[in-house]
Specification:
The protein is of the alpha/beta class. The protein folds into 3 domains: 159 residues, no CATH class; 78 residues; 136 residues, CBS-domain, CATH 3.10.580.10. Helix content is 57%, strand content 14%. A 4-stranded mixed sheet has the order 1-2-3-4, with helices on both faces. The chain has a 4-stranded mixed sheet with strand order 5-12-11-10. β1 and β2 form a beta hairpin. The longest helix is centred in the first third of the chain and has 32 residues. It is globular.
Length: 394
C-alpha cells in the first residue's frame, strides 16, 4: 500500500497515510455525526456531534495504528525488516520485508495485533461503563462505547481464517507447522482468502441489487475485491521468496554502468551518450564527481526537441531520493520490496560511496522470469506491475 503522506516515526518505524484514508474519515464522521450519535444521545448541538465524531474517528485510527505497531515491533524483534506502516481506506498495513522464518514466528507476529485490538476495546468499554455508572458525559460514553464495539468487530473480522487477514495468517502458520511446507500452507490459506473475497463480493452485489443497502453493498464488494487480490499477491510473494532465495543484487546487476555529467544539455547528452551506448538509463554526476541522480531515455523523450539545447540533464533527471539504492550483497527479494513497480524500476548499486552497478527493469524482469521457471507450477512474475510485498491486515 503506497504512502501518500508521512507523518513521522514511532519507535523508529515510519508512519504514513494513504490518500484513501480521507474517504474513510469523511464517511465515518458523517455517519457518526449525522446518524449514530444524534440517535443514541439526542439533545446536543450539531457542533458537539461533529466534534465527538472527529474525536471518535481519530481515536479509531489510533487503535488501528496500535494494532499495526504490535505487528511491526514483534516482527522487528524477530529479525524482520520493517519498511513502515500505512493507514488507508480499510485499516492499516505493516510493510514487512520477507516472510517469517518459522511458523512460530508467524504466529507471534500475527496474534499480537488482534490481542492489542481486543485490549484497546476492553479499555474503552471499561471507561464507558465507569462514566455511565457515574451518570456523566453521556455523549462521551456513547463515543467510547462505539470505539469499544468497532474494535471488537475489527478483532473478530481479522480473525476470520481468510488470508491475508490475521486469522488467515494464523491458519497458514498452523498449516505450515503441520505440512512443513510454507508454500503449500500459503497456497491453501490464499485459496480460502480468495474464496472469502468472492463471498463478500457476491454478498455486496446482492445487497446492492436487492436495494437492501447500497452503501454497505459497495463496501462489502470493494473489501471482497481487496481480499481476493491481496491473497493472490501474497501467494506470489511466497513463491518468489522461495525461488529467489540466495539471489543477490550482484547476481543480476550490470557492473560499472556508464555515467554522464549532470550539467550538460539534453542535446549534448543525446549526442554523446544516448546514441553511443546501449543503455536505457544513465547515472549522473555533479561537478565534484558525486552521484546526483539518474536520467532515462524515457525522461529525455518527454522533452520536446526545441527545448533540449537549453535544458540541462539535471533538470529532467530523477533525484537520488526517487531511485532505489542497494548494496551488491543485498538479497534481490529485499530490493524488490523497495520498489513500487519492478517493470519500471531502476536500482543504483553502491559499495560504500562508490557506484559499482545498476539494475534495470529488464534485469529485474529476467530474474523474475527465471524465478518463475524454477517454480513447480505456472507463476505470473512482476512484469505485470505487481511488486512483491507483505500486505497487512484490514
Amino acid at each position: 500500500m503506497r504512502t501518500s503522506l508521512s507523518i513521522g516515526r514511532i519507535a523508529g518505524i515510519e508512519i504514513g497515510l494513504n490518500w484513501s484514508l480521507a474517504i474513510a474519515f469523511f464517511l465515518f464522521t458523517a455517519s457518526l455525526a449525522g446518524e449514530v450519535f444524534p440517535s443514541d444521545v439526542p439533545g446536543y448541538a450539531q457542533t458537539a456531534y461533529i466534534v465527538a465524531a472527529i474525536a471518535a474517528v481519530l481515536l479509531f485510527y489510533a487503535s488501528l495504528l496500535a494494532h499495526e505497531l504490535g505487528h511491526a515491533i514483534v516482527a522487528r524483534r524477530l529479525g524482520n525488516r520493517v519498511d513502515g506502516i500505512t493507514l488507508w481506506l480499510f485499516g492499516g498495513v505493516a510493510r514487512l520485508s520477507g516472510d517469517s522464518v518459522s511458523d512460530s514466528a508467524e504466529l507471534r507476529i500475527t496474534l499480537v495485533g488482534p490481542a492489542i485490538t481486543i485490549a484497546v476495546a476492553i479499555v474503552f468499554a471499561v471507561i464507558a461503563a465507569v462514566l455511565a455508572t457515574l451518570n456523566v458525559f453521556p455523549l462521551t460514553v456513547d463515543l467510547l462505547g462505539w470505539l469499544a464495539r468497532i474494535n471488537f468487530i475489527l478483532a473478530a473480522f481479522n480473525l476470520i481464517p481468510a488470508f491475508p487477514l490475521d486469522g488467515g495468517r494464523v491458519l497458514r502458520a498452523l498449516l505450515w507447522r503441520f505440512t512443513h511446507d510454507q508454500l503449500r500452507a500459503t497456497s491453501i490459506a490464499a485459496w480460502l482468502g480468495r474464496a472469502f473475497g468472492v463471498v463478500l463480493i457476491l454478498g455486496g452485489l446482492s445487497m446492492a441489487f436487492l436495494q437492501a443497502s447500497l452503501i454497505n453493498g459497495v463496501w462489502l464488494g470493494v473489501l471482497g475485491w481487496f481480499l481476493f487480490s491481496a491473497a493472490g499477491s501474497q501467494e506470489l510473494q511466497t513463491r518468489l521468496q522461495r525461488s529467489l532465495t540466495g539471489v543477490t543484487v550482484r547476481d543480476v546487476m550490470v557492473p560499472d554502468p556508464v555515467t554522464a555529467p549532470d550539467w550538460i544539455t539534453v542535446d549534448d547528452f543525446v549526442a554523446r551518450y544516448a546514441t553511443v551506448h546501449r543503455a536505457t538509463a544513465y547515472p549522473i554526476r555533479d561537478f565534484n564527481g558525486q552521484l546526483s541522480g539518474l536520467v532515462t531515455l524515457h525522461d529525455v523523450s518527454a522533452i520536446a526537441p526545441p527545448r533540449r539545447a537549453g535544458t540541462q540533464v539535471r533538470v529532467i533527471a530523477r533525484s537520488l531520493t526517487q531511485v532505489a539504492l542497494a548494496r551488491p550483497d543485498d538479497a534481490l527479494i529485499d530490493v524488490l520490496h523497495q520498489v513500487e513497480d519492478p517493470a519500471t524500476a531502476y536500482v543504483l548499486v553502491k559499495d560504500g560511496d562508490r557506484l559499482v552497478g545498476m539494475v534495470s527493469p529488464e534485469d529485474i524482469g529476467r530474474a523474475l522470469d527465471l524465478a518463475g521457471l524454477r517454480q513447480p507450477g505456472p507463476v505470473t512474475t512482476g512484469r505485470s506491475g505487481t511488486s512483491p510485498g507483505t500486505v497487512g491486515d484490514v
